[in-house]
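Renewal narrative, Specific Aim 1. Our central claim is that a sequence can be written position by position from structural information alone. The example that follows is taken directly from our test logs and has not been curated for this report. It begins with the structure tokens describing the chain, in the order in which they were read.
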């Protein structure tokens, strides 16, 4: 079952909010922490920045009405 653009936007925005929160947490000094004998490490900050950019682009594409794919026409050679 396909999602409507509105449903997809809500899902993407939720994911973007989670990525932004993870970035804020890491920038606040919580890249890695220990609970008892267990160590928890957050994702790499660079990967989070890349994911944030990807999500923002996908959201923008849907808002602009073109989805994530565009048609390109090349004239002659």
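The sequence written for that structure reads:
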């Amino acid at each position: 079952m396909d999602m409507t653009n509105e449903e997809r936007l809500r899902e993407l925005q939720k994911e973007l909010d989670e990525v932004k929160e993870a970035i804020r947490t890491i920038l606040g000094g919580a890249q890695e922490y220990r609970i008892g004998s267990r160590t928890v490490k957050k994702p790499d900050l660079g990967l989070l920045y890349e994911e944030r950019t990807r999500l923002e682009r996908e959201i923008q594409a849907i808002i602009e009405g073109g989805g994530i794919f565009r048609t390109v026409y090349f004239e002659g050679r």
